[in-house]
Amino acid sequence: MIRNNLEDGKTILELGSGSVTSELCKYYKVYSIEHDVKYVGKYPGSTYIHAPLIGDWYDPAILKRELTFDYDFLFIDGPPTYARRIHMLEHLDLFKSVPMLADNCKVNHRPDTASIISDYYQLSLEFFKSSDWQGYKHFYALMLPKK
Ligand SMILES: C[S@@+](CC[C@H](N)C(=O)[O-])C[C@H]1O[C@@H](n2cnc3c(N)ncnc32)[C@H](O)[C@@H]1O
User: Fold this and answer.
1) By three-state DSSP, how is residue 124 classified?
2) In which element (H, E) is residue 58 found?
3) By alpha-carbon position, which residue is closest to atom 27 of ligand 1?
4) Looking at the DSSP assignment, which residues form a beta bridge with residue 137?
5) How remote is the CA of residue 2 from the centroid of ligand 1, in Å?
6) I need a surface site. Which of 10, 118, 128, 131 has the fewest CB within 10 A?
7) Average pLDDT taken over every residue of the chain
């Protein structure tokens, strides 16, 4: 999905690093915000920003200090668990209005974070159904500049 919406050589900021990080690094400059020191540097190629969790979300003081560079795309895939991830809503001022992909963002019994995020950044919103490696259904939200 990112490959279809972002030219090679552009810069991605991702929340949460994982195996997809290595894939992205083949085509893009990647910065990964990672809370767990165990995974900092695990996927070579990315520039890691270690931001431990304070409560349920990344330490906002670290993000504010570190996010001084330009990026073209935001991939929201951390911190792990839906319950934590919704706390991005309290820190929207930390991020730029760029195209975004949010994983695991719409599950019926949880607040619809993606629509709040897309409203805040004035982006259009489209959901795509997916399923993870265990077969659990979830949704990706793709947020792009409005036409
Ligand atoms: C939900 S994962 C997804 C990260 C990435 N965007 C991807 O799709 O590969 C995010 C979190 O899982 C943890 N993680 C990273 N690699 C892992 C691994 N191999 N096994 C278990 N957890 C991992 C890290 O703490 C990371 O912040």
Assistant:
1) strand
2) strand 57-58
3) 16
4) 131
5) 17
6) 131
7) 90
3-class DSSP state for residue 125? strand
The answer to whether the CB of 60 is under 6 A from ligand 1 is no
Give the position, in ligand 1's atom list, of the atom nearest the Cα of 78.
10
Cα 28 to Cα 25, 108, 117, distances in angstroms: 5, 33, 24
Q: Could you tell me the two tokens for 6?
A: 């972002």
Greatest mean pLDDT range, 6-15, 97-106, 123-132? 6-15
State how many domains the chain has: 1
135 has a pLDDT exceeding 80: no
DSSP structural state of residue 116: H
Ligand 1 atom closest to 77 (CA)? 6
- Does the beta carbon of 78 sit less than 6 angstroms from any atom of ligand 1? yes
Residue 32's CB is within 10 A of a number of other CB atoms, namely 28
Q: Give distance in angstroms: CA of 79 to centre of ligand 1.
A: 9
Domain at 139, CATH number: 3.40.50.150
Q: Is the CB of 99 under 6 A from ligand 1?
A: no
Q: In the chain, pLDDT over 70 holds for what percent of residues?
A: 90
Asked whether 118 and 18 are in contact (CB, 8 A), the reply is no
